[in-house]
Amino acid sequence: MKSNSPLYKQIASDIKDKIKQGIYEPDEAIPTENQLAQDYLASRVTIRKAVNTLVEMGLLEKKHGSGTYVKNKYYEHKLYELKGFTEDLGRFGAEIKNEILKYEIIKAPVKVAKQLKIKENTDIYFIRRKRYADNKVLIVEDTFLPITLFPDLTYETMLHSKYDFIENYKHYKIKESNQIFLPILPDSYIRSILNIKENTPILKLESTGILTDGTCFEYSEVYFKSEEYTFTITAQRNLK
């Protein structure tokens, strides 16, 4: 293996590629540390560091007394963290791609106007994106944005991270997002985009983003392909 990066990172990258290619399948144990050390001509310390890197990324999990396994669902969203799609799945080392299905200016419908705290029929952006991780379609995202906040928003911008544009280009500070998750049976259009069968339930997220000054900067409706995307939440008991 030839690269300027440390050997453990090269090995981790190669194992990740094998997971993507299906050489190591979900719920399957990867080779032992001894076998990997032989395969990669590396020390067990280096192999352990490579494997631990993939465990931290959420691609592998260690089972005590059994071995290290490929996670069945490794695209995980933590509900207590406010992160955009690119930022969220970037921690797994996923290759993110956005495909824009609609990019237009519309009159704000009643529901959207209420969420954005603007008048009905105000001109707003409507962007529908098909979002991929490692060439897998994971979500369909409908986003509504006030033109007054983002007069310079472009088609090109929405091919990349929306939050990066808002925070690092516009220099707005995001405070929070009010979110509601709903189990739904998607219509035929959403099913076709996500490539799921009829009567397959999915999760729909309705989200309103708020800046530190209280301004509502976005309203989104997001449809998740549940078989590829999991959600975790950490609940703490209030001990007195």
Structural commentary:
The chain is an alpha+beta fold. The protein is 27% helix and 33% strand. Strands 4-5-6-9-8-7 form a 6-stranded antiparallel β-sheet. A two-stranded antiparallel ribbon has the order 1-2. The protein has a two-stranded parallel sheet with strand order 3-10. Helix 2 packs across helix 3. It starts with 6 loop residues before the first helix and ends in an 8-residue tail after the last strand. The mean pLDDT is 87.
Number of domains: 2
The CATH architecture assignment of the largest domain turns out to be 3-Layer(aba) Sandwich
The pLDDT mean sits at: 87
User: Could you say which structural class the secondary elements and strand pairing correspond to?
Assistant: alpha+beta
Q: Give the H and E element order.
A: HHHEEEHEHEEHEHEEE
Biggest β-sheet: strands ordered side by side in the sheet: 4-5-6-9-8-7
Let me know the largest β-sheet. 6 strands, antiparallel
- Radius of gyration from the alpha-carbon trace, in angstroms: 21 Å
Question: What is the tally of beta strands?
Answer: 10
Give unreliable regions as ranges: none
The oligomeric state is single chain
- Strand residues, percent: 25-35%
- Shape category: elongated
Query: Mind telling me the CATH class of the largest domain?
Result: Alpha Beta
Distance between the termini: 55 Å
